[in-house]
Amino acid sequence: MNPADFKAPEAGRVVRAPGGYHAFIPAPLPPRLAYDDGLVLALSRADAALSELSGLGRHLPNPHLLIAPYVRREAVLSSRIEGTTTSLAELLMDEVVEGATQRDPDDVREVRNYVTALEYGMTRLRTLPPSLRLVRELHARLMKGVRGEHATPGEFRRSQNWIGAPRSTPETAVYVPPPPEHLMQTLGAWEKFLHDRGRMPDLVQCALMHEHFEAIHPFLDGNGRVGRLLITLFLVERGRLSQPLLYLSAYIEQHRREYYEGLQRVRTDGDWTGWLRFFLEGVEVISREAVAQAGRLMDLRERWRGRLVGQAKATELIDALLVNPYMSVARAQRVLKTSNPTARQAVARLEKLGVLSEITGRSWGRLYLARQVLKLIEKVEAR
Asked: CB-based burial of residue 250 (10 Å sphere; 0-12 exposed, 13-18 middle, 19+ buried)?
């Protein structure tokens, strides 16, 4: 890491670590911000879009119909940023018939752990606000039993990490976060800022919170995924989201270079304005797309239900298909709490109507897919 690149003392300071390399210690938040016209407009637009999404979550007849596929899409995209290649279709198929795909089971487990961590975090918010304790608990669930398990799940690092090209060292890395002896002090300041209320807009605080967490990089592995989990959990805890429906990984994955460059410019140049505008645009774009996607899914639901009037069992399966578009007779039997013949009849009715398509070509162990649902929940339009 070249200390000459870090030209903004207000953003933090470069220190020489005991190993002889240089590392960066971010200054405590909040920074002094200049709300120019562009930033004010970006904040206004993001705030309006987020409020619309939150309102949608309050008025849906069953928010779980959208939360479940959104969580899984976020898990896939957030993990993809870190190099995992499992697709949304593979994750959903594996949930219905474990081992149904040929995907590396470690890849699938990493993505499933993300779902587990987010669902755990939502439950934990009832008794524990965003904090260092919650961060450790999320990390423990995220890294359980996966390839990074050597990276001490649920424990802050006790050795140096760095960000750079493969086979880079602290000397050649693009960025080296605080050395271990400075870690708890910087984390303590971050947590204090996390608990601060009423001094700035929630979206601005959320953006600063995320950037600072990535600058500290408190774990040996999994920092990016935990940092993205915290965005949603922070906004839910602050009451800005009624349901966990905002997931920025789609935007970050499509603008990965801008994302990493924006984070780095905060450290090197103190460019919080550039970072905030990137973050706020992401909130606006993803919020508007989530509202539009919800509308498309609910329209599809009502069209299908309208074609199934008087067919209670088949109608009941429609909502299950919005949660996961893959269906087997065994799953239908569990959803309907009925006999195998009745479940088989309901699945056959949906296949006859074109809601489901059989995808195995077998006469046994058949698996069906609601292709229209999968197409809608896979759709990502973040520009």
From this structure: buried
CA dist 294 and 373 (Å) reads 11
- Tens digit of each residue's pLDDT, the chain (383 residues): 899 999 999 999 999 999 899 999 999 999 999 999 999 999 999 999 999 998 887 767 676 777 888 788 888 888 888 777 788 888 888 888 876 665 667 778 888 898 899 999 999 999 999 999 999 999 999 998 876 556 689 999 999 999 998 899 999 999 999 999 999 999 999 999 999 998 999 999 999 999 999 999 999 999 999 999 999 999 999 999 888 888 888 899 899 999 999 999 999 999 999 999 999 999 999 999 988 988 888 899 999 999 988 889 999 999 999 989 999 999 999 999 999 999 999 999 999 999 999 998 887 889 999 999 999 888 754 44
Q: How many residues does the chain have?
A: 383
Place of tokens 């050597």: 150
Fold of the domain spanning 3-292: Fic-like fold (1.10.3290)
Domain chopping of the chain, boundaries:
3-292, 311-378
State the pTM of this model: 0.90
Q: 311-378, what's its fold?
A: Arc Repressor Mutant, subunit A (1.10.10)
SS3 115: helix
